């Protein structure tokens, strides 16, 4: 096309866009040929409809979904009569789409200020998933995820966090988040439907709604969650039972408990006897022998109750509630001087405090999810980070030399 024809075409384009809607909100490309009208049917009052002037060619390159939508002969294709090219996306979130469009059009000044908040990140990832545009935000995804995790104050946002982990391709975090949800799951009564319970003051949430909110998983999730919940409760009971029964049934002639070595981390049977309330600690004294003995009796009664009562396995107690019950019950135990880590209380904290129980049940429930999809996302993230900055020190050097990270892909992606 010669220069004269190109100028004529460009003039026609500008003329056509002069009649664009007056409430155009954000111009991603001043020479853009397409207007996206977004969020017109959203019921959320905080998500006001927005219009975006964009370049259709950019969307075609960045998104296979937009490529088919805009250039595949569908209703959203460019009008042949020369009228404004306006495409309505009634159910998309304007705030999330704005970030994706800003990144794809190199309008980095329009990216959100850090720290990123959970709601906006979920909106962004939802848009990326719908239009297959995750690559567009990969340079920032790592630090956005860190912002959300660092600002977290409770686990009541677990459904959103699990969804973010899924859309981000973070399998490790996904297993933990789903596991934490199951740790807070109960039944209103035996054989009733599963309920997510975050404790006093929080609304209970049926697991059917949880599954809808997560947006992934298999059709037999309810059964898998029920089995996982019971498995965790049994693990907790078995651990406490082993610690208590092993100490109570100590055989001083063999130095073994049920065929294993003494529970004291230094293999000192006197430590075990003192914690069990059988004898004072030699040469140092343990004044609260009776206290330990009474604590043992209470724990033994609790184990008998929870082990025999079907409600503990298929009823109103959540695994996290059971953990807290035993945490409070085990706390009074006193260990001899220099043997604090031998206390059943310390061992219980080690057993439940590292998140391994949540990851275990999460892995059990999510064994059938599409791992290929998540692996592909992780590989793309890694390649993007490597392209953006060869090392953390290089990013730091750039910041020191320029003093400005506002528009720097590399430093922004490294979270500086």
TrEMBL record:
Residues 1-11 have a biased composition (Basic and acidic residues). Residues 1-22 are annotated as: Disordered. InterPro entries: SKP1/BTB/POZ_sf. This is BTB domain-containing protein.
